[in-house]
Protein: DNA 3'-5' helicase
Amino acid sequence: MTPADADPLLAGLDDEQRVAAEALLRPVCVLAGAGTGKTRAITHRIAYGVASGAYDPKRIMALTFTARAAAELRGRLHTLGAGQVQARTFHAAALAQLGHFWPLVVGGPAPRVLDFKGRLLGQAAERAKVRVDTATLRDVAAEIEWRKVQLLSPAEYEQRLPSRGIPGQLSAEQHLAIVAAYEQLKDERRMLDFEDVLLVTAGMIETEPAVAMQVREQYRHFVVDEYQDVSPAQQRLLELWLGDRRDLCVVGDASQTIYSFAGATSEYLLGFERTYPDATIVRLERNYRSEPPIVETANRLMRGRAGALRLRAAVAAADAPEPGPTAARSVAEPELREYPDDLTEARGVAARIRERLRAGAKPEEIAVLIRVNSQSALYEQALEEAGVPVRVRGAQRFFDRPEVKEAVHHLRAQALVPAEEPLFKSVSDVLRGLGWSAQPPAGPGAVRARWESLNAIARLVDDVPPGTTFRAFTDQLRARAESHHEPTLEAVTVATLHSAKGLEWPEVHLVGLSEGLLPIAYAKGLEAVDEERRLMYVGITRARRRLELSWARQAGGSRGEREPSRFLRELGIRTPDATRDGAPAARPRRTG
Structure:
């Protein structure tokens, strides 16, 4: 591709995105608010750099934090003609380097990486002669992870322990004994955990000049997405990858820092200009996702907070046509609904969603966002009782479902036989043999859930280019499974606010907005409450056209009354006089 071919890569960008895309050979910091097209900006920037000859595609590393986000980057870069560019998570990039350099530096194959700490921690507790339950072991694992990503030595962590709080009912000595036994077992069995991968790779680069030279020769340009989520361990590794070079572009939004509990910090994003005084700083504040009332609600919540961007609703968001009946894609002011208790709230939300589906909305266009996983069962049950198909995000990965594994196995086996039939017929014949039909079964339940899974595979045929062979289709299924690129299911999504990060829906129901849930009861101190505020901001900005908020005065079986979330008072949304579909009337309340 010649430089003349590069201009179309900039044509579809707005003025601010274009500034970011054209600043190729200098430090760049893109402060990108929710829905402002940050992924578009950085992928076009990379593709433009490749097309213009400024970048060798084999010497660029695009980094992000989840396998799904990395897969999306790779897909977009491939479409833009930059498919040779590496797009990986920090851990995947470090693991690849560890596997390459360990035999050269240490000798022999690299240690095996633990995919789950729980079993080894249980054995460590036995070695330390400490009785402990599974929940406490999960908290011990979180403490191990936090200590390592904060780059604290065991002695430094021990000094910080009183302010951290000790998991469960353990004493400090018991907790530290389990941690020490865990590390001993890991060393004895030649194992590393995920945090070790970052630390050991950084150690190799730092102490072995030949490794540092080879790494820095391989990758010269770095792009880091979601930079507000970087931890000290990841930042240290990034700095070692860079060496004394300055070819770095970072993208992030301090208002979406929601993983501080796991060691993430927005300090590197907000301090980028101090680190690189000559950096190009670009602010993306034109929101292309959400309607103006939703954007205004998000702005009110974050007004005056450190690093908060002032979003502006793009005209295109309101004018962009969407398929479906007019009633289904109508725009409404955000509403706040109050219910007497959690069960009534769940049923009320389910009734509202059923009403929207009857108006022509599609179930996959609607999400119910919750604060903690324990809320999911109530909403799953209420939606099923209302006859609404539902999926709980994070409950089980799509390609891990037994019926999906079975279908993929049969499809791959059948694809070995050359077929002259159209792709859809080949796929549907296999799926019909597993019980799929063109029409869904009546009612909710396990049969409907199985049909939804098989139907999602059938619908993937519509997403592939014309002429795709049966064998190529099954190869794509395997690639999707490996990258966790799940298909869209025809069901309402129930998801925690953390798992909703990076996603969006035309309609969002943000529920459980009471003190003790959002902010969560254990959020003590200004920093912890600010993190809860950012979680609510993430929830609000997932909505494109409609946003409904709700809270309940009582928990199930509780006599004590809750208070509405303190954040609601800042939004100025009035509670309607009553809920619908026969739910008990809610008290009118002015929240702002």
